[in-house]
User: Fold this.
Amino acid sequence: MTAVLVVLEGPTESLDWLTSAAAERGMRVHFPDARLSRGDSPPSPVRQALLDASLGRSALAYDPPLAVSRLRSALPGLRSPAARRWAAGHLALAHLGSGAISEGLEVLRAFDDDPVLLRCQQMLASMPGMPGCDLPSSLDPGLHAVAAFRSPLSAVEHASQALSCSSLLPVAPAVYACALLALVHADEVSLARCHIDDALEEASRHGWETARVELLAVRAQLALRMGDLDAAERDATASLSGEPVLSHGLGVLVDVLVARGQLAEAAKLLVRADLRGPLPVEWRYNHLLEARGRLRVARGDVRAGLDDFLECGRRLAESPTLSTWRSSAALALASPDLALEELELARASGSPRAVGIALRTAALLSVDPLPLLAESASLLELSPAVLEYGHTLVEYGIALREKGMLGEARETLRRALDVVQRCGATVLAERAHAELLRSGARPRRLAQSGREALTPAERRTAELAAAGRTNREIAEALFVTRRVIEGHLTSVYRKLAVTGRTALADALRLECRSG
Assistant:
């Protein structure tokens, strides 16, 4: 089958149009031997360069080495500065996708006079989670420090500089997303949320779909770190609707499902995405690698989970603001030494969240956990890490009960139960409830049915369905896929003991009256 593609020389939108048009038809623009032509005429160098650039951009989604080859071929033939800038930005990202950071930086150095690509260069050097050893020694030492993410303050400074460049988002959305991740990992919650929401509005207004899904994946990570599992699930699911499926969004979704005890569903996600084996050495897979480790441990495969945690350690920088793999590995190995190493690094980072998690881990491997858990709780209470605070309260309450301090234990566990239930963390809520019973309390039974058993996402879905919205309309309103809505409704029908939409509105009204 011969494909004849015609792209007129002009603005970069023509390149985006070619890729978008193919995507709308379920196609990938992937013709390694294609030549651009009109009829039987040989292609001009400029037209061939435009085709190579477009094919390279499309290949970014599934074949970074092919993208590198195509975009490198295109650059010499592109005449307009805008087209050269567009191709250079994507070539740098293609190198990044192949794990070749220094090559990506080298491409961008040829465009030091371009403020947008200069921002790209700075951010490629300072991306959280990228191995600093691959960076050229000629780089400013400050960028090396940020690349290793040993200094959250420095990372925030460079990220803020990059995000102040309004043209960065359409040129290099992945780099923009990494700048946002620097803010997320530094717990600059308000600043990160403001940038993300503004950027999402701009991406939606201009139809920048690649940027939109990148931003949704980052917002999902922010929601997860803040303990809002419902929002994290919603944004992570929406981010998976893009091409390629963003593995950092998938990592968030796996973590949410593990927190809710839906281990089989999380495992099925990895099977469908064919992500059960070795994961590519690329920044997008770092969170997924750690989340997969947590899933494996939760399912009883501690050895495989530990392998994932240790691989995380080989890939990531030293700072626990990026990953708590040491804490996870310490618990899997029952290693106090590894827990104390994590605690030392966390204290050096100055991150309350990182210190709080490390303190909790050290406490669980200590003969005297109470002082460490008390310190962890006091730190996390003032941080945006609400779910981590709830987790520490659960462990603190258990430790108090085991010491015979039943009054304090009951008070702590009640507070823990309230926090983790609001987060939607089913597994922790069940633990807190069980421990309250052991402490002699008589807590209200955890709802297994009825309106109170609905998660926030299920409740919103039920209310919209009861108001007469179709599944498609609900999915659009909540920014998720129809499959997610179908799953929510199935759970709603079971919990409310109804068989379909007809009885849903009445069931919700009755539940409200009885409450």
